[in-house]
Amino acid sequence: MTAITPELDRVYFDLLRIGLEHPELVDFPTTHDRSKARQYDAYAFMIWNFVETVFDRCQGWGWSKRRLRDTWYPVIAAENARQPGLVQPPAEPQQVQGTLLPIHRRALPYAPAR
């Protein structure tokens, strides 16, 4: 676990810094500007990919995995609250396997009620 936590911290810090430097990427664009929508989609995908990686690394038994869950599940819940579209099932049922829907159902004890 020692190498995992600093790596996750660094990547998440970098993602947060991008969001601070470009706040327009953090919230879904309200205009119909395709360029802004693509930029938002790219940033949202980076966050989604990071959250999936964190979730994968938290799986398993033992105190180290529990510590990872205690540290990172609140972050997953915060990202879910900020970008709830990340855990919504896609329109096409065959694409469900690639979404974060299982995280929303099983692993977010800290997730706000909807």
Distinctive features:
61% helix; mainly alpha; 114 residues; elongated
- Rounded radius of gyration (Å): 15 Å
Overall strand count: 0
Counting helices, strands and paired strands, the structural category is mainly alpha
Beta percentage is: under 5%
CA-based shape: elongated
Low-confidence stretches: 92-114
Helix content: 55-70%
Output the number of helix runs: 4
The ordered string of helix (H) and strand (E) elements is HHHH
> Main beta sheet: strand number and arrangement?
none
* Average pLDDT score: 76
Question: What is the straight-line distance between the termini?
Answer: 33 Å
Question: Into how many domains do the coordinates divide?
Answer: 1
Could you write a compact summary of the structure shown?
Helix 1 (4-21) runs antiparallel to helix 2 (34-58).
Write the layout of secondary structure elements.
Blueprint: H1 4-21, H2 34-58, H3 63-82, H4 101-107
Helix pairs in contact: 1-2, 2-3
